[in-house]
Each structure stands twice: as C-alpha cells, then as structure tokens.
C-alpha cells in the first residue's frame, strides 16, 4: 500500500494545503482560492482512486484510519461538494472579511470531514468531528451574523458533548476506542447499546438538524458566507446521517432493541427507539416544510428544506430495512447534490444582485438563464419529481413506509413531499420568474467558472436520476456489509416491496412526451414575442414592474393557517432568556464575562453525568 | 304643506339668516343661505335627524355669474327632504369642504370640482380627476362649454353621402 | 431557398383552410361590458337563445378571446382600454360593434365624452343594429360573423395591421396619448 | 416590493359593468383600494341640458341599465312637481307595476349575479332565464325589452295591453313557486354560506358615514328605511307590503333581504293588478306640441327606491323648453366610491368581487 | 420496448379522443342543468384546434418551454396508464409514477404561467399548489391503505385483484370511507367546485391560464384533458375495479366524471384557506381512520 495514495495522506495533504492556502492568500487572494480548488480536487481524485482499497487500515501516529465502504461513500460525496463549491471561492475573496482564514478553514473543514468518515476509532472520529465544528464555526461569522455562529456552536457543542460522553462511557465499559469493536460489544448489551444509540444518535440528529435541533440550520445556513452555505447544507449536514447510520445500522440497534411489542394486536415494525427517531424525522419534515413555506429569504428557505430532507434521511435510516436505508443513502446523495446546486445558484444570484430577499428579486431568468436551469433541476430533484435523482430516493422511502404500514409517518412524508412543491416553487417564481426589476436590468449571467460546478452538479443529478443503479449498486454493497439485505436491482429496474421502478424508462417516456409536445409546438403558428409588462391587467395601465411581481407573502393564505401554531423558535427564545437570566446569576456569582452558553452546557453535562452514573 | 316642515323651517329661521325659501313639494323645502352659514346649517340639520346627504350638486347660473351649491339632505324618520342652497362667486369658485359633517360628501365634492371647477378647500383629493381622463378643456358642465362643438372638433362624425331616408344606404 | 418559402406558404394556406373551419365554430368572446348593450348578452347566453350552441362562450382575458364585443357607446376612457385589450388579443381576432353609438355616436352624438365613429379607431367586422340590440339581433350578428369567418371576410385585424398608422393617428387625435400615465397609473 | 397592484376591472369577469377597482395587495390582503370610475361617463347631465323636456325621455333610461324605469319615474315626478300636474289614478298603479317588475328583474339579476363572484354559475343562468320572461312582459307592455320610455311626465305613455294582467300573474305565480329553489341553490348552499356568512360586514355606523341606502342600509340598521314607506310615491301607501330588515349586515344578510324583497315585489304587483282602477293613463303636461313644452321654473329633487337604494334626480328649470340642469344621484354612488376607498381594504382579494357585488354597486349610475 | 411505446401512443390517442368527447358531452349535460341546450358534443375538439391555430403571444422562452414540459410530462404519464388491460409497460405502472410524473406537468405549467410575469398567474399557481397540499395528503393516505392491503402498488395488479369476484371485491365496497375521501380529493384534483380556487375567473381572471392564447392555450387544453383522464382513470382503477371491457371502462369513467361535474355545478367556490381547512378536518381524519382500519384491523383487504 502506497502511502502517497492513502487516506491519511489525503487528510494530511488537505491540512498542508490549508496552511499553504493561508500563506498564499496573504500574498494573492485569487491564488489562495485556487489552492482550495486544487486541493479539494486533488483529494477528490485521490479518494476516487482509493475505491479499490476499501477496508484498508492505516495509521498516522496514534490515529487509525479505516476506509469503510460507507466512509468512502460519504467522503466522496463531501469531497465532491467541497470541490464544486470551491470554484465559487475565487469570486468571493473580495466579499469575505478574512479571505486567508476562510481558505484555511475551508480546507481544514474538508480535512476534518474526510478524517471523521474514515476514522478507525472513536477518538479520531471525535477529534475530526470537532475540527469540522470549529472550522465551520469560525467561517459562519464571515457572512452576515455572529449570532448565527453562536447558535451553531451551541447546538454543535451539545451534539459533541453527547458524543464524547458516549465515547467515554463505552470506553469505560469496553476498554477500547475502536469503532467496530466498541459497537459490536455494545450490541451485546442493551444498556450499552442504548447509551451508544442515544449519545451518538443525538450527535447525528443535531448535525443533520432534525427537530428539535433544527434551529441552527436556517440560522447558520442563511447567514453563513454564500459559498459556505452549500457546504453546510449539501455536505456537513450529511455527517449527521453518518452518525445516525453508525448508531442505528452499524451497531444494529434495530436488532438489539428488537422486541415483540404489540400495538392494536399487530407486531410493531421496529423497536421503540427507532420509532422515536422516526417520529422526530416526521416532525422535522412537517416543521421544516411549514417553516420553509413561510420563509422570505432565499437561503433560509433552502435551509429549512434541508431540515425537512434531514427528516427523510433519519426516517429512512431508522426504519432500518434495506429499502429504507438504501433510500436514505440515495436521498443523502441526491439531496447533497441538489441542495448544493440550489445554494450555489443562490450564491450566483447574490453575486450578481447582492440580495437574497425574494421580494426584492424577480425575472432573473431573462438575465441568468443558466442559473435558473441549475436551480430548476435542483428543485425538481428536491421535490422528488422524475427524472431527477431525488425521485428515486423518495420512491424507495415511500415503498418502505407503505410496506410497513406506517400511516402517520407516511402522512407526514406525503405532506412534506407535496409541501416541497410549494417551497421550492417559491424562489423559482419570485427570484427567477415574474417581472424583472429595473434595478436588475443590467445583471449578467454568472461567470464561467461559477457555471462549471453548477452545471456539473446538475448533470450528476440528472445522470443519477436516469441511471440511479450506478449509485444504488454501491449502496447495496454497503447495506450488505452492514448486515442488511441488498437492494433488488435488475439492469435498470429497481424493485421495492410492492412495485418496480425503471427510472430510465420513465425518463425515456418523458423525453418522448416532450418530443411530441415539441413537435406540436413547432408545427403551429409562431407566437408573437411581447414584453413582460405587456400582460393582462384587466385592461388597465401600469408601468412599474415591481408592482406586478407577486413575491411577498407568497403563501399568505396558507401561512395564516398556522401563524399561531406553537413554534420551537419561541420555545428556544424563552429558553435562552431563562438561561441568560441564570447565566447572569452565575456570572454575578462566579465570573465577570458572559458565560451563558458554557454554563448551560455545563449544567447539561452534569445532568448527563449524574444520569450516566446511575445507569 | 307638511306641518313638520313648517316647524322645521321656523326653527331654522330663528337660528340662521334665511335668504330665500321655496316648497317644490309637500315634503320638501328649498332654503337659501349665505355661504358662510352653510356649515353651521348643515351641522344643525344633521343634528335634527337629517343624517343623510343625498347629493351635493351645483348649478351654473351663468347670467348671475354665480354657482349655486345644493346640498340635499334627507330625514329617514320623517321623510322630509331639505335643499340647503347657497351661491358662490363664479369667477373664483371656492368653497370649504363639508366632509367633516357628511363624510360621504368627499366624492360629491370631487364630482362638482371636476364638472364645474369649484374648489373645495380641506378635501385633500378634490383636485384629482375622477370621471374624465386627460381632460383638455374647461369643466364640461359649465354653461359656456359647448359639448357639441367639442365633440365635433375632437371626434370625426360619419358623413352620409345621400339622404338616407330617401335614397337608401348606398353600398 | 425559394422552394422552402413556397412550400411553407402552401402549408400555411392549407393550414388556414382547416383552421378557419374550427375558428368559425368556436368563438370566444371577451368578457368586457363596455357599455349598456352588454345587458342583453346574458339573455343571449341563457336558456332562450343559448349562445353556446354556436360554440360561443365568454373568456376571461384578451389573450384567449377571439372576438371583442363593443357593446355600445365608448367613452374616451373606455376606448383607451379597448384599444389596449384589442392589441393584446391573439390573431385572428374579430370585433363586433353593437348599437348605433358605435356607428355614428347614436344618442350621444353631442357628448363631450363619447366618440362618434368607432371605425376610425378600430376595424369592425360586424355591426349589430338596435338600441339596444335584442338577443335575436345579437344571435343574428354572431351568425353573420360565423359566415364571414367561413368566407374569409372577417379581416378586420388584417386591415388594422396594414393601416396601423392611420388608426394610430386617429386614436392619438382623440385620446391625446394612447396609454395614460397619471397618478392613478404608476 | 411588498405590495403588488391588481385591478378588478374594467375588463374582468369579477366586475359587473365597466369600472376599475385599483387594489394594492400585500400577500392576499387588500391594503389600499380605490375605484376609478368614468369608463361609462357619457355626460348625461350635459346632454340633458341640450335636449327638450320631451326628448330627454328617450335619453334618461340609459343612465342605469339593469333598472331603467326608476330614471323615468324620478324624471316624471320632477316635471310633475314643477308643473303641478295631477297624474291620473290608473297611471299611478301602472307605474307601480312597472317599477316593481323592474325591481324584480334587477333583483333577479343581482341575486343570480352572486354566481359570478362565488362561481355558482347555475344560479346566474337560472336567474337570467327567469329575468328574460320579465323582459318579454316589458316588451309587450312598452315595446322594448330594456329601455322602455314608458313612464312619462303626466302618467304613462299608453295603457296596458289587454290581457297582460293574466300574463303577469302567470309569471308571478310561476316565479313564486320557483323562488324556494333559488333559496336552496344559493341561500342554503353550504359553500355559498361559507363565502358569505360573517363576511363583508357593513355596520350601521358605516352606513351613516357613507350615506349607503337601500338594502345595505336596511340590513344594517334594522329600520324600514325605504322611500316607498318613508316618503311614498305612486300609490305605495295604499298597498300592503313589508320591508325586510336586519340588524347584522353581512353578505349573506344582504342576499337574503334581496330574496325576501322579491316576494314583496310579487305581492305588490298582485295587489296592484287587483286594486287598479280604470280611466285615463296620461294627463297633459302643457298645451301645444310636446317638443315645445315649457316647464315652470323651479328646483326640485325627487327620489324613488331603486333596487340598490335611493335613486334621485335634482332638476332645475328656468322655464324654458329644455332643463337648465339635471343632477343624478346614483344609488350606489356612496358605497361605490367612498366605500371602496375606505372599507374594501382589509378584505382579501378573493372577496373583492363579492364585496363589489353584494354592496350593490352599479357603475353606469355612478358615471352617468 | 417499441411495442410498449406504440401501445402508449394508442392509449394516448384513446385518452385524448375519449376525454375530449366526454368534455363536450359534459358541457351539454351542464347546459341542460343550467336550462340550456349546450354545444355540440365535439365542441371541445373545435375549441382545442381553434386555439392551436391562433397566433398567440410568448413572454420568453420559459413561457414556451414550460408548456412543452407540461404537455410532455402529462403525455408521458398517460402512456404508463393501464387501460382496459392494455398497459404499455407491464409492471411499471407503479402508483407513485403517476403522482410524481403528473407533478412534472404541473410544474411545467406553473413555471410557464409565472414566467409570463403576471401576478395573477402567480396567485393562481400559489392557490393550485396550496390546494394540492390539501387534497393530495388524504388521497395518498387512502392509497397507502390500498397498497398496504393488497401489497402491490401496480395499478393493473390492483385492478386485477378487485376484479376477482365482481363488485364485492371493489375497493368501493371494501373501503367505502376511503372511496368517499378519494372522491372528494378527485374533485380537488379536477379543479371542480367547490375546489376551483386556482381558476376562479371572477377573482383572479382564470389564474394560471391568464396569459395563454393561441397554441400555448391549445396545448394546455390538451394537457388538461390528459390530466383529467389520468385522474379519473386512477379513481376508476383504484376504487371501481378498473375494467376488463372497453364498455365497462367507459361507463365507469362516465359516471365518475359526470357526477363530479354535476356536483361542481350545484356548488360555489371555496376560498383557498377554506379548502385547506376542509380537507384537513374531515377527509384527512376519515382517510387516517380508513388506513388504520386496513393496516391494523385488516379490514377491507
């Protein structure tokens, strides 16, 4: 095994590239940004070449690395996202306050992700996990708001502490840090398994932003630098899926907790802890959907949609049969591509117009058609419409939910799926379609190097929508090594519990349909091109395009139905207020600086320790 | 004549200076006042049950060089109708709004302004055009405005080649 | 090159013949009550006369409509909007004028606000007589229109395209400006 | 930008007539709105000054299209008041029949018209079909379906044709038996009720502030504020009828009152046909050619209860062959202009056409 | 493959001819309901071809592209439908394909209409999507019950299962609550009153259709016919046991569609939030009850 082409080499290389980027950015900003492109690209290439070395073990000093198949899957996905986004760094150097630090942290975060996914033992996992958290925490305030970073850190710290507690607890019981070994041991003992399940599960839930830990997502995603939002949403959030996968599948919680509980005379489809996860996933689908529908900000909207999609992933993993976990993996993959593309198109819009407020934009399709197409493909995938990859994953998840007869979960999922039509359409309509505001008259299409990753991601989304089995075969292998049944794949056909899907056929037929429509369109008389303002206004006259652009309070009648519903935001706000008060008390007693966050988590940690002691 | 109306007019007479009176109908009285009294008269009759301003209109007495403003108020309880009238100078037609007494007068005042050119001070929108658009002549309901001439000038009319009643329409 | 143009021309002609057949029997009118003659349109639409037998029906916006009904007199304010609506309609489009007011001003011949001759401003395909035209007359007028479409005589819109300058001149002479820009129309 | 601008009319399926409501909308709530009238402005008041007293009879019905007879009535009443003419008894009764038939036709149109804004087109078709029969009766009486020019100064133009009474009665009986169907279709229809109950309120204070009359006023105040009762004309004091009222005015109440008034109109016509005396139908206004009538100088205002409220003419004569000035009070002027400006904001765009419809706004009488 | 596509074309043609004729017949029936005579039965064909032959306007490429996407998506969906035992791609007529492939067409239309720059189109699309949240969720829950109960999501298999022993195995009989819910949802899908909010000519002048004229309108009319065909056929297949003969299919289809149309003509239109409230009160509760009955009690399987 050549050390040059190995996981530790990639991680070390990325760290080195980070330092290099920092130094170079001091000299020349563009050069530094170029390093992020080259560094992440090289790492991606290296990781792709490592496909044959799956299950190899290496060590770098005390840290051990093991390239598991799911680790490889996640790493490649991450690297792809980081690589795509890094092109945008070239254009953002002027807008970011500390470009050198940004480039440095960007690559550090990447190194952290790769490291976390390939760590052999829990210590490595935790260190790299923290690397991601810290790196991204420092990047977020480069955007709009420092507060967002605090919120992000508060939640992440909760997740990290929870994980740390779990790791230490399991170490004290099993005497090892090795992930595989520890989880195997844990699965022998229900108590250990429960601790591992809860602690690592919470870390995952926090990271993926599932209710009730979803609050940091819109704050951090909406306020992070425009180039970092796609990383957060497309990439880092998926680390939560990784943790959840560890907790549920790798340590097969679904087997450990398997019970014969009955409900209405029918055996439960899965153990209760998994049901809790499913419930949280379902709630976050509904909450994320409703909040996304309500958002007035382009980026916040996509961020909330990530909450909803995180819900699907968690549900998929928690149901823990091959179809659902396969669906969750596919969904992570599809959503990473789509959400990154959507955020990138948002970034492109920001780059040209300087705002993400949907009510101030409009009609950009006439100036940025390519960005529009990228966003269109992204949302088609996010809404789960064929022929994009999002459809495949949703189909698999639905198959599994219906197969298990999970009425309420499926209802939430259906709601989220239809609700996603609502929120994804809104930016399409408010930002890209509609009337072009006169102040954006001279806006140009995104520059070429920005187009490259956007087109790349879109093509991948399309490719894996038409030929999903390329990915699904690999996912099937992951499932098999994790002890589940593989997926049933025949050629181009995917078989579920109660039906078959041939995405290529669907795409082909859609193509044929489109072709017929095109023919019908062409053979009929040519239309007269008219101006956008030449539109039906009940024969009255109007000259201000903004007054004809319907974008503010788009779903007003729908929003009114739940404007008074209980909100987690308000709950957290009240909580923060209480903590602030308590913190003031503490600070009055002990400290002079503001320690509200630390105090809160200290309290949490103490509670957790007491609880752990009694176990 | 209605007895209520007699009492009412006597009451009004005792309070305000009545310039002229007329009784066109059994249940209707037309009372002329000086323009300075109009607001107090209207406020008074409103307190006497004339809660509705049916219409505010204007008559162009071009020979007297005066505009006559007519406020027609109605008492729904007794069925009595009053024409409260006043005359203002035609060459500088200005009056004060009564929207504080009858809010419904707002658009009647705009209407009178548009068609007669009477300005109502205190009515914020009274100068705006309402019924007409791009009007390029004097207010059209003034007596010295000839609508036929305006129409002939502005809109082409159909010329008939022959006397259509005899020769019939030539195709 | 010439060959393809000729071919296209032939196709267009053949296509025209077929489409006239459909057009004649599917006439959507614009829901625009421009004047008082519109009051008899509901009667023509309901049980007694039932316009839908002819394939006629109301349509919400000018884009979809085939025929613009000028139901009576036109004040300047309406004329401005009618012209806007007419120009928004998809071709081929037809224009049916009701009553004498559209012909020569009718009873409003001396009004300062009502135009006298509509054909100065817009091309009219069919006039329907009567103040206001009875539903029978309305139906008859529509039958005439259908006949004209079949016989390729309803060419008002072509006339309008060809003589646009002349129409424009008249319109501006009456309206001052074609599209009003004032405080109500920002 | 937060606000968008939407137009209800002039060319809009939700707009009856030809006027434009400019609405500034935020989300789906109307924030500001105003009516842009004048699309139907024909300069009636000017044209009437240019025509003789007799010529004007041909002109005036055209002011209000759905219910033209009220115009003829107030115009005739004004001339009669100025010239002190005594109208023959029979003419009063005929006028009443005509006016009530006109009210029926206008109410049927407005009642069925609710089909437009709520989408219940069946109601519209049914009501229009029934209205068509009234127009046929009118045609037989007056010679024209819509513009009758029948009520003239001094009485009516000519006597009722023979046998028309039975036709009218037949129609009325038929309509009376059909009205419950309308009640089921419209008033008791749960989907219509969902749109109209507790929606588009018109409190009594607003009525007084704007000067709303007619059904709007009666539905809010609970008083019998009907000119037919308060200041009777024709022979309304001699027939027995009720004025439906209510104290809570939402869209549903106003529709219900309209519906109940139809019964009352039927009732009045039946009584009138019953009680109608014989005799002359027209008194002479002045000697000589009708085209050279001179009406004594004077200024008079007359009003009648139209289907939408108080409809009045203010007529000024200087003793010449032509009126010196005629001012028209359209019944829906207050709610149409000030009402739209002040009280339409706050409603949703879904309700805007319904607002316009149930407030009984008729654009030609506003524009004149 | 090729035969499959040809079968698909056959189904397309049948769907167009049948649904368009039925629309004409429907207009006649509605006319009778409204005391009129109504147009000829082939009036809808005339309207469509007339619209296609006109010279419309376009507001930019997305205006045209969206229309093509709409029609293309819908036609693709129709080609997957099993009709009277004919299925272009046996085994692939998965229920979810219809739901989501239908969405392609809807998305295309929404995109195109908002691309016209008319706020009324935006409001119309907003209402259509909001309404979709209303009717789709109860419908899907009912379908969940059916799929779970019969353990297949293939339409032709579901039809075959129901045809096993006459009317007694129809889901109409076995899951009556679900059928009612699905029918109410069908009214919403078809945009029949009271769920006509997104067209609402009197309020938003026909919503998404506001800017269409000429061939775009014609194509959307064709699309509408296809969409109606899909929705009604789904209902017929899922609840009325599909059909083995053409006549059976036509009869069931006719009843379902005309009944919807008659209901529509006796009702007024809801406001959009009333639609959501309505669907989320009664139908969704009934749907969940039905699904629970199927899943936990095994009733109606």
- Alpha plus pi helix count of chain D: 15
Class of chain D in CATH?
Answer: Mainly Alpha
The quaternary organization reads as heteropentamer
Unreliable stretches covering 5 or more consecutive residues of chain D: none
CATH topology of chain D: Cytochrome-c3 Hydrogenase, chain B
Total domain count of chain E? 1
Structural class of chain E: mainly alpha
- The computed structural class of chain D is alpha+beta
Quick one: how many beta strands of chain E?
A: 1
Helix content of chain E: over 70%
Question: What is the terminal separation of chain D in angstroms?
Answer: 37 Å
CATH-wise, what's the superfamily of chain D? Answer: Cytochrome-c3 Hydrogenase, chain B
Question: How would you describe the overall organization of this protein?
Answer:
The complex is a heteropentamer of chains A (615), B (171), C (186), D (368) and E (301). Helix content of chain A is 70%, strand content 4%. Chain A has 615 residues and is mainly α. In chain A, the strands form three sheets. In chain A, strands 5-6-7 form a three-stranded antiparallel β-sheet. In chain A, strands 1-2 form a two-stranded antiparallel ribbon. Chain A has a two-stranded antiparallel sheet with strand order 3-4. The radius of gyration of chain A is 24 Å and the shape is globular. Chain A starts with 6 loop residues before the first helix and ends with a helix. Chain C has a domain at 27-134: Rossmann fold (3-Layer(aba) Sandwich). In chain C, β3, α3 and β4 (94-98) form a beta-alpha-beta unit. Chain C is globular and about 55 Å long. Chain D has one domain: Orthogonal Bundle (Cytochrome-c3 Hydrogenase, chain B), CATH 1.10.645.10. In chain D, the strands form three sheets. Chain D has a three-stranded antiparallel β-sheet. A three-stranded antiparallel β-sheet of chain D has the order 6-7-8. In chain D, a hairpin with a 7-residue loop joins β7 and β8 (325-329). The chains are: A mainly alpha (615), B alpha/beta (171), C alpha/beta (186), D alpha+beta (368), E mainly alpha (301). Chain C binds chain E through residues 15, 18-19, 22-23, 25-26, 28, 31, 46-47, 50, 52-53, 55, 60-66, 88-92, and chain E through 27, 31, 34-40, 43, 46-47, 49-57, 201, 205-206, 209-214, 217. β8 of chain A pairs parallel with β1 (57-58) of chain E, so a sheet runs across the interface.
